[in-house]
Design brief:
The chain has 362 residues and is an alpha+beta fold. The chain has helices at 3-6, 25-34, 47-62, 86-95, 99-102, 108-118, 151-154, 269-273, 308-316, 325-332, 336-348, and strands at 14-15, 18-19, 37-40, 122-124, 129-133, 161-166, 177-179, 192-193, 199-200, 210-211, 219-223, 228-230, 239-248, 252-254, 291-293. Bound molecules: 2-oxoglutaric acid (AKG).
């Protein structure tokens, strides 16, 4: 038997270096500089995290995915492979509309620690990503997050960091995030389209991977240029985590990163806010003194086209590889015009959305 199959943790390579309380700032800055990340063990107070976890599990239970919303002893009865299917998207849309999940953007601990880290107040970007990662059979490897650099998606201030927070226990077997320590020093690597329609880069082979098992309360922060990915969930549990992005308040923010018209998973921000009780949490970024900058699309073009005219020309020339870009542009395109044209092009090709695009697993 392949030893990796018995011990999936060995696929992660090394172990992430961890920092324990009182999480010295000087050490965090040093590790961010040298390795591109730091991992704070037991950093976050747990009540809000457990409330967010329980709210997500309640949605999964209501949707018939698990036998009980109790995190201690649910069994999975319906699993989804990726966010491409309409049913799973509907679940994710419910999750990104949970007020308790949005509360995680406003954690006092997060703001005070990172304000000290950067030496100025921080801005937590409104776009966040809750991950609901089911254990899926070995043939469906494409359900994992493939290697990428966050800057390719969000651009803006080079100093922004990704904050990865487990919302439940997350062992190695549950397929947590993994990092390529030191890769933040390689600059922006050439990107290409991944099988899920996102952006991916080659993992710099000389860098290796490192990961860890995570517990509730841990917080992993990493550089916007650090290559990162996940591995496959080979456990019998659902991996629940959330990733946020934060940066110094004075830095630039791409307009297209702000949910003025679109949010995530096809939900508009107004839909996400519909059941909110706390009015002041809505549109909080509109009250922040942001340095907003414009680009056509948040992703720097390094290797494949991101503007609709070129994509259309490539499609007309029979290059189907650019097709998965259309759902992204239909959802995240910078202007209404771009979004509508991308949606129309998809329709012309008989695609309702990403679920109709043939992404072939390895
Ligand atoms: O949690 C994952 O699967 C990947 C996380 C990620 O890509 C991110 O935090 O940007």
């Amino acid at each position: 038997m392949n030893p990796d199959a018995r011990h999936p943790a060995t696929r992660y390579g090394g172990q992430l270096t961890e920092l324990l309380a009182p999480w010295p700032q000087i050490e965090c800055r040093r590790q961010r500089e040298v390795d591109g990340y730091f991992l704070l063990r037991g950093f976050l107070h747990q009540p809000l995290l457990t409330q967010a976890r329980d709210a997500i599990l309640a949605v999964l239970h209501a949707e018939g995915c698990i036998t009980t919303p109790d995190h201690r002893d649910y069994r999975i009865v319906k699993a989804y492979a990726a966010d491409q299917t309409p049913d799973f998207r509907a679940i994710l849309q419910r999750v990104v509309s949970l007020e308790i999940v949005h509360e995680l953007l406003h954690l006092t601990q997060l703001h005070s620690f990172f304000s000290e880290f950067y030496g100025e107040p921080v801005f937590v970007m409104p776009a966040f990503c809750p991950r609901i990662s089911f254990p899926i059979g070995p043939k469906k490897l494409w359900t994992i997050t493939t290697p990428h650099q966050e800057y390719g998606y969000f651009g803006g201030d080079r100093r922004f960091m990704v904050i990865w927070i487990p919302l439940d226990e997350c062992s190695h077997e549950m397929g947590p995030v993994r990092l390529a320590p030191g890769s933040h020093k390689r600059g922006l690597l050439p990107m290409r389209l991944s099988r899920q329609g996102g952006l991916e880069v080659d993992h710099p082979k000389d860098m290796g991977w490192a990961s860890a098992g995570f517990k509730l309360g841990d917080l992993l922060a990493f550089d916007s240029h650090l290559v990162h990915a996940s591995t496959q969930n080979v456990s019998d549990r659902i991996r629940l985590s959330i990733d946020l992005r934060l940066q110094p308040l004075g830095g630039s923010v791409l307009r297209s990163s702000l949910p003025t018209t679109h949010f995530i998973y096809g939900t508009s921000i107004e839909e996400a806010y519909r059941a909110f009780r706390q009015q002041h949490r809505k549109h909080y970024w509109l009250r922040a003194p942001l340095n907003i900058v414009d680009t056509e699309f948040p992703r720097p073009a390094t290797g494949f086209p991101l503007d609709l005219d070129t994509i259309q020309a490539r499609l007309n020339a029979g290059d189907g590889r650019v097709l998965p870009l259309l759902p992204m542009l239909a959802e995240y395109g910078a202007t209404q015009d771009v979004r509508e044209r991308a949606a129309a092009l998809l329709q012309e090709r008989g695609c309702r959305g990403p679920e109709d695009i043939d992404v072939v697993p390895d």
